[in-house]
Amino acid sequence: MGQGERLNHPIVEESFAIIDREIGNHSLKTWEYAIARRVIHTTADFEYLNLLKFSSGAIDSGIACLRAQVPIVTDVGMVKQGITTMLTKTFNNIAIAAVERVAVADVGKTRTQTGMLQCFDKYPQGIYVIGNAPTALLALCDRITQSNLKPGLIIGAPVGFVSVVESKEALKRLDVPKIWVEGRKGGSPVAAAILNALLVLAWENFSATSDQGPKTRGTRGDKAENLGIFPSYPVTNA
Fold first, then answer.
1. Domain ranges across the chain
2. Quick check: is 41 catalytic?
């Protein structure tokens, strides 16, 4: 599949048309709306039109990172599974589930927290996608504050009642590129939908003659180093 070609199935496009008609006028920017629409398609919940928030430059940063093939770190396997198909059709970034990195958690932490911190220490400029574990998002925010390093993008969409709002508030305070869901809503499908929408935007709006990235589907580990933006990352399973 060449860059610029459509990634969405015709049924998805038909669903998008229905969503467009039901929403009508809105205040989101074009690419913000593309992300919100995919989340609405995933959840059948139109409230996400108002719950999704974007920091200045977050979408541009996320797209640049995807094209540079930086690693993507998810909190849990379900988010990773939700983005794998779209990744293989596009830039083929390495995807790592933090919880799968460790067999035993550090003292006082969950496995997801422990894995998330290990991933950040290894891939500080990666894309971080949290759809399940607010404790992992809180740990990530704390480590960023302590280290003063900035990831390429954080997607904060944990769901639930315990520490969820607090984790999103911690994310909002960080001066990093970020996309998040206000309040208690979110979840792994929502987080995956946000990342998948970014992949579609990055792929379909990328010139086939551009010298900023591969002309065809990505080969893991080659672009980030070649661009001189990010360090070289190992291509073995993390």
1. 10-220
2. yes
Catalytic residue among 41, 80, 220, 223: 41
Sheet strand arrangement including 153-156: 52-54, 178-181, 153-156, 127-130, 72-74, 95-97
Looking at this protein, which amino acid is placed at residue 226? Answer: N
User: Which of 147, 146, 166 has the alpha carbon at shortest distance from 156?
Assistant: 166
**CA–CA gap between residue 22 and residue 33 (Å, rounded):** 13
The pTM assigned to this predicted structure is 0.86
Neighbours of 133 (CB within 10 A): 29
Sign of the Cα torsion 13, 19, 25, 31 reads negative
For residue 178 the two structure tokens come to 């970020």
- Residue that is written with structure tokens 């205040």 in the block: 27
pLDDT exceeds cutoff 50 at 63: yes
135-188 tens-digit pLDDT: 999 999 999 999 989 999 999 999 999 999 999 999 999 999 999 999 999 999
The span from the CA of 76 to the CA of 132, in Å, is 7
Kindly report, residue by residue over 11-46, the tens digit of the pLDDT: 898 999 999 999 999 999 999 999 999 999 999 999
pLDDT at 3 over 70: no
Contact 157, 183 (CB under 8 A): no
Which architecture, in CATH terms, is 10-220? 3-Layer(aba) Sandwich (3.40)
In the numeric block, which tokens belong to residue 116? 């998330």
